[in-house]
Amino acid sequence: MRIEELETPAIVVDLDVMENNIRSMAEYSRDHNLNLRPHTKTHKTPEIARMQLNAGARGVTVAKVGEAEVMSGAAIEDILVHYPIFGQTKLARLAALAPKRKILVAVDSKVTAEAISSAIPNGSSIGLLAEFDSGMRRCGVSSPEEVKALAEAISRLPNVRFSGISTYPGHIWAEPDKQGGPMEELSSLIGEIKSQLAASGIACEVVSAGSTPAAKTSHLVDGLTEMRPGTYVFNDRNTVGVGACALEDCALRVLVTVVSTAVKGRAIVDGGSKTFSGDRWLSGDKTGFGHVVEHPGIEFASMSEEHGNLDLAQSGYAPNIGDRLSIIPNHVCACVNMHDSLYFHRDGTVEVSWQVAGRGRVR
Amino acid sequence: MRIEELETPAIVVDLDVMENNIRSMAEYSRDHNLNLRPHTKTHKTPEIARMQLNAGARGVTVAKVGEAEVMSGAAIEDILVHYPIFGQTKLARLAALAPKRKILVAVDSKVTAEAISSAIPNGSSIGLLAEFDSGMRRCGVSSPEEVKALAEAISRLPNVRFSGISTYPGHIWAEPDKQGGPMEELSSLIGEIKSQLAASGIACEVVSAGSTPAAKTSHLVDGLTEMRPGTYVFNDRNTVGVGACALEDCALRVLVTVVSTAVKGRAIVDGGSKTFSGDRWLSGDKTGFGHVVEHPGIEFASMSEEHGNLDLAQSGYAPNIGDRLSIIPNHVCACVNMHDSLYFHRDGTVEVSWQVAGRGRVR
User: Fold this and answer.
1) Is the pLDDT of residue A200 over 90?
2) Cα first-last separation, chain B
3) Shortest CA gap A63–chain B (Å)
4) What is the C-alpha separation between B326 and B95, in angstroms, rounded?
5) What is the mean pLDDT of chain B?
6) What ipTM was assigned to the predicted interfaces of this complex?
7) HSE-up (13 A, CA, CB side) for residue B1
8) Average pLDDT score, chain A
9) Is the CB of A279 less than 8 angstroms away from the CB of B273?
10) Is the pLDDT of residue B175 over 80?
11) Residue B35: its pLDDT value, please?
12) Do A64 and B133 touch (CB under 8 A)?
């Protein structure tokens, strides 16, 4: 089947481009002696996680216990839940994975570490990473002293082990390699934390960080052992906007059909926020909901739930009902999460369709 | 089971409030001799559609063929696909519903009407509504003359019948009942269209409009026969913001748990844009991603995919990991679409959980 025959809206992924993205990040991590642990939130698809592992990734990252279950169910062995999981039932489900898989969890409080420790039955063990904040102001303790205190607390708990430290530098988008810039700041923070831990005699096996925009400057961070980019597998308009990839590196497109041309100067396509997600172009000028590949002059001006409203004023495009367009979404992780399955093609010929098995696993 | 025992994030719906919303809109429509045809995009749940029908709704509205299939599969008889469906496979699926259900489709072009007509086998028939634009600038032809031309074209096509006219006045949010305001403008536009049709000898059975914000001013629109509100079944922060309901009329809340308090002045909860959708508070000051019921002074300041970032500065709230909060989302339709199932409770006791069966039916 050709992608031109697919009903729209449909997500299509160019296998050549995706494989190249997977290979290129794996090579980068190998060249710099970093472990690669892709965040699977982007695709939520065990088959793609397997491709990342085959290319050299050491394990995967997830955000939810439900996603860990999906990856574990696909025989993936090494899973970091980079989320401070809390709640009795969720922790019981996490504990059920511990005997058969290598499970790690990132935590930023003694309370959470204790709850996890209590949930893991004797004889099992999971590794905990102490999460610190490197400027994102989301999760993570705020000072090297607090990291040390948390590491000490973890070290005293049964059925968990202190495995290292972690941060999510999701605020680092622009010029990560600038002299005196964010990667240097992160290096120095990690250095301080490691000194504190060393002074306490605590070994720090893992130093984990990473997101796609700064991924390929990870070697500038002294002491880093692991990187966790997610978006790079597909890339998106935000990745392009921040300069971390080119448009040709975007593997995923949303195929849509023009369904209305009744309003002058506009074309309506059959995908809106329930197809693309409502994410803005954060790394760009914050306008537009996607890049229209065939007519880059089109502005994807607004969205309803099921309508994409294209402003044609600057495009020279004369639309006809039934025209098909390919759109690169602003935020590919949120877009994929709207779909139950993805189509994978080579040169337009569909080779396979995979279920987004982790979608909807919100707990 | 109590809602306090549910794993988070979870959507809970207060049955008393929802039933009241359903009853109240049904009463309004009955009192004003209007047919009620709720848009099921809000809940995508056949069980709720059935409740709306039992309360007096004449039929349902959907946006996708896949949603029509879900509703048809639940033995719902009268389905308006308020979307200019285009594409061979989709039209074949639509045609397959036509022999057993009363199917209507809103179209705004001769091209789409012809494609539908060609797809319906002889012996079946579906009704077409000519959609006109009343200011939203999305779908719909722009003038009474164009409505007439479209109606004439439809009347000449086999296996479809011209059933009336329709518009989506989704731009009408504030003061719909103002003298000389948007509902009066809509009345006058409908009047012109009906005159044109009458002059051509075309009967216009249905005059359909409606969205939740202006729903209960529908009686101000002369000639209207049908209203299609969707959001009213649950209501949301946008509905409150526009003054169309009170906070107590919001039947749906997202239960979340505080999972991190490491960053000062903030609390992180276990739901972000993949739980709530990224919708802004369009009817309010455009800030904040939801209303925190227990602590209205909390600002739901930002979101990542799985993190909700609460700014506590104005709230006086001292958070603890494990605290549970209830949040009214900005845009309930987009929020429900993130979830595979919803929990329904009365006074906090869960009575039933229903699958969001239409979720993911993007085609």
Assistant:
1) yes
2) 36
3) 7
4) 43
5) 96
6) 0.96
7) 12
8) 96
9) yes
10) no
11) 98
12) no
Closest among B105, B114, B54, B62 to B84, alpha carbons compared: B105
Shortest CA gap A31–chain B (Å): 31
CA-CA distance, A268 to A288, in Å (whole number)? 14
Identify all chain A residues contacting B270, using CB atoms and an 8 Å cutoff.
83, 86
The token pair that represents A155 in the structure block? 């070290």
What pLDDT sits at residue B285? Answer: 79
In whole angstroms, how large is the CA radius of gyration of chain A?
22
Distance CA B304, CA B289 (A): 11
Identify the DSSP state of A210. Answer: -
pLDDT at A317: 97
- What burial letters (b/e) apply to B108-139, b meaning 16+ CB within 10 Å? bbbbbbbbbbebbeeebbbbbbbbbbbbbbbb
A219-273: pLDDT as tens digits: 999 999 999 999 999 999 999 999 999 999 999 999 999 999 999 999 999 999 9
Residues 6+ apart with CB under 8 A from A33: none
Strands A324-329 and A126-131: unpaired
A172, pLDDT greater than 90: no
What pLDDT is attached to residue A171? 84
Whole-angstrom CA distances from A350 to A235, B85, B219 are 20, 24, 52
Mean per-residue pLDDT for B232-261? 97
User: Which of A63, A89, A259 is the closest to B84 by Cβ?
Assistant: A259
Residue B334 one-letter amino acid: A
Instruction: Answer yes or no: do B334 and A274 touch at CB < 8 A.
Output: yes
pLDDT digits (tens, 9 = 90+) for B103-150: 999 999 999 999 999 999 999 999 999 999 998 899 999 999 999 999
If one counts every other C-beta atom within 10 angstroms of the C-beta of residue A282, the result is 13
B284 pLDDT exceeds 90?
no
Greatest CA separation for chain B = 71
Q: Which residue of A has its CA nearest to B332?
A: A305
Cβ atoms of residues A16 and A207 within 8 Å: no
Q: How sure is the predictor about A173, in pLDDT bands with cuts at 50, 70 and 90?
A: confident
Measured between CA atoms, how close is B363 to chain A, in angstroms?
6
CA–CA distance, B206 with B78 (Å, rounded to integer): 14
Q: What percent of chain B has pLDDT over 70?
A: 100
- pLDDT at position B253 over 80: yes
Q: How far apart are CA B177 and CA B216, in angstroms?
A: 9
Q: What gap in Å lies between CA B13 and CA B29, rounded to an integer?
A: 24
Residues of B in contact with A115 (CB under 8 A): 322
DSSP letter for each residue of B246-272 = -GGG--EEEEEEEEE--STTEEEES--
Of residues A293, A279, A267, A185, the one with CA closest to residue A238: A279
C-alpha A229/C-alpha A41 separation (Å) is: 10
Reduced to 3 states, what is the DSSP secondary structure of residue A176?
A: coil
Which of B261, B262, B274 comes nearest A133 by C-beta? Answer: B262
CA B315 to chain CA centroid, nearest Å: 32
Domains of chain A, earliest start first: 3-9+243-355 (2.40.37.20), 15-233 (3.20.20.10)
Find, in chain A, the residue whose alpha carbon is nearest to that of B131: A262
Per the document, the length of chain B is 363
Residue A211's DSSP bridge partners are: none
Residues of B in contact with A359 (CB under 8 A): 360
Residue B212 has pLDDT above 90, yes or no: yes
Torsion of CA B341, B346, B347, B350, to 10 degrees: -40
Q: Output the pLDDT for position A176.
A: 78
The string of pLDDT tens digits covering residues A281-300 is 988 877 899 999 999 999 99
How far is B323 from B319, CA to CA, in rounded Å?
7
What is the C-alpha separation between B224 and B201, in angstroms, rounded? 19
Reported in sequence order, the residue ranges of A262-348 that DSSP labels E, i.e. its strands, are 266-269, 290-292, 299-303, 308-311, 324-329, 341-346
